[in-house]
Amino acid sequence: MSKYEKYSELLSAYIDQELSGGEVAELEKLLTESKELRKKLDELKEVKNLTSKIKRLPESPYFETKVIAEIEKDHSGFRKFKRWTPAFALGVVTIVVMAVLYLNPNIISNFWQEQKSAIAGFYKENLHPVLYAANLTNDDIFNFAFNNQLPLNETRDKYLHVGYDDLGKEYFEIRPAIQIAETGGYDKFVSALNLNEKEKQLVDSVIGSYSEVLKSQVLVNDKNTLAISPKLWNYRKAIVTDLLIVAEKLNKPEYVKFVPQGVSIDDKIKVANAMNELKSSQGKQYIFCTPDSVFSDEFDFKLAGLEKEKVEIEKEIEKVKSIKVNLNFDSSWKKLNETSAIQTNFRIEVDSNICRVDISNFSIPEIHFPGFDSINVFIEEATKNIQLYTYEIPKIEHYEEGVKFDYYDGDSVHSFEFKYEHFNLDSAIEFEHKMFDSMMSNNRLMFKWFNDSALSKYQFDVDYFSKYYDKETMKEQMKQLKEQLNRMKVDIEIRKAEKEKGRIIIVK
Amino acid sequence: MELNNKKENLAQPQILNLDDDFSIIKKFIDGDQSAFQILVKRHKEKVRNIVYLTMSNSNLVDDIAQEVFITVYRKLQSFRFESQFTTWLYRITVNKCKDHLRKKNVRRIFMPLQEGAEVSHSFNSVEENDMSKVVMDAVSKLPAKLRIPLMLKDIEGFSYQEISESLECEMGTVKSRIFRARERLKTILKPLEKELIA
């Protein structure tokens, strides 16, 4: 042990400025004498520097509200056992509890229900229709019908996506804008049908008829609650069906692009009945997503009441616009990953991009409409056909700093983007020809493009193409893609050469 | 009007003032329930961060912080105005954290595999995690008695005196534990030295 080692502890207090004047003077004198001690000081400073880089928690704006609610609940119901309660007293209580349970076996479930009601009441306060603030356009509603997504705010940086899993059970997700399908499909749909202005107005009015009713299907409040009506899934089907029926009426030759076999008279009657039932149903059930849990409960939201008072509506819209739907990034939501599946019938997955809620274990009465079941197949087929018609795949976009690829798989958009600055040209060249050989020979290879860890991985899935295209069409697509890539390769080489000369160019 | 102005001032508690806390507590004791909400709002972030840094687990933060304020609510009527409210509050916070750590240790006896897996997470490369997470992972490997004073000092900026009051131990003990925590942390971070410096 060196003679200076006993001073090590003082060094730690020294960097914390916790030594007295005398101690500081003594230590600083020793520091000038000892290299060993100076080294130790540097090491301790380095550790302190690292610990000071630990990030603090993000603020929790609703924390005090929750605390007050918990205190009020605590005051109204709980009996608190003192730590020092003697064991015999506990025994007596146990016997009493057993007796009460024997005489009234439902008491626990009743108590639990009361607690649930109290929490539900707290989160149901001040719910507003978020879609008012989103200013839904006809394209948004068309997009909802065929791409299952609704914007959650005016800036359109968050979307609600509703869908069905592989077993046909409903789920919904909150997604950032980057992971949603391209908008603008409605215009493509109208142009595909060669509609004149008058006919377009008819289609507009069909879509417009859903605008108001959709608004009461998604509610939010300032407690980070999102309430979704289970009717949303059926409204999507209703809009699809309505649009296809009107499309058939307006332009049958073009309409068969979407639904080759057409819709039978029998199915039209079933659909009309189901839609009437849907529009007139009085279900008040909502699925509530809150920072604490996901649950379903009744909620009496009166859209008509709001409609009557226009001034009030404007105020409400301003209020709702100020609410940010931020469920997926809130740390409190992340704990739902672990707890919700046990507590509720919903399965929740939250990561930094998407918040997904599967409602597979939960049966909501409104979701079932027999008329829709019989035409589900045709709705889904038409949806896929329209998706294929309105989206070209893959889409390649050149811009100043790089190149972006998008493709749409019927559920979401997969984006791959690389910037010239970071592009690993060698790995691209090495793999390019192997990839096309495998595609052309129909070798079912999942090909990873680049082995550059700085880039996102783009997986080129042959199954995806073969699902929609015959072999000849796929070859044509691949040829086009190859041409695009060759052009991109040339672009990159030009840019590199220009950069070496100290010039920056924009590749069109 | 005066009260409203006061509340506005309290909405941005950049500098916590002893007298402000005392006057809010007096209002609460006199029956103004809304004063408690102001108190929570003033101190919630500090309490949440102490819990986070002490427990090394963000999932538990709001639950434990909520327990802290419920305890404060129950005991505030008997607050004696002899020491700073924050000293009292932080002591309750640290004790709540210790309770939870104790319970966690008891559970670990019965579930050694799962709990062991939870605490012994290894470092990923710095490429995958930011530096804050790497250092936090390393800090979480320290025993609670070393971790807590170190975090109170380096992140919350407590003085040794404040730490000794919050932890109810001698200042010499605080000094020694902080030093030992840094020494231990240096050893844990040694394998990542190049990445951290880079």
Structure characterization notes:
The complex is a heterodimer of chains A (508) and B (198). By secondary structure, chain A is an alpha+beta fold. Chain A has four domains: 5-51, no CATH class; 63-123, no CATH class; 128-389, no CATH class; 392-500, no CATH class. Chain A has 21 helices and 15 strands. Chain A has helices at 8-15, 21-33, 35-51, 63-76, 87-103, 107-123, 130-133, 138-147, 185-192, 197-215, 231-250, 252-255, 265-280, 303-308, 310-321, 331-334, 336-343, 370-390, 425-440, 462-468, 471-500, and strands spanning 128-129, 149-151, 158-164, 170-176, 218-220, 226-228, 285-289, 294-298, 347-350, 355-358, 395-398, 402-408, 413-419, 447-448, 459-460. In chain A, strand 9 (347-350) and strand 10 form a beta hairpin. The longest helix of chain A is centred in the C-terminal third of the chain and has 30 residues, at 471-500. The radius of gyration of chain A is 31 Å and the shape is flat. In chain A, 27% of the residues are buried. In chain B, 73% of the residues lie in helices and 0% in strands. Chain B has helices at 2-10, 18-29, 34-55, 61-75, 85-110, 112-119, 131-140, 144-154, 160-167, 171-189, 193-197. Chain B has two domains: 13-120, Rna Polymerase Sigma Factor, Chain: A (Orthogonal Bundle); 124-191, Arc Repressor Mutant, subunit A (Orthogonal Bundle), CATH 1.10.10. Chain B has 198 residues and is mainly alpha-helical. Residues 1-16 and 107-128 of chain B have low confidence and may be disordered. Chain A binds chain B through residues 8-9, 11-13, 16, 18, 43-44, 46-48, 50-57, 59-60, 63-64, 66-68, 70-71, 74, 331-332, 334-335, 338, 453, and chain B through 36-37, 40-41, 44-45, 48-49, 52-53, 58-59, 61-62, 65-66, 69-70, 73, 127, 131-132, 135-136, 139, 150-151, 153-155, 159-160, 175-176, 178-179, 182-183, 185-186, 189, 196.
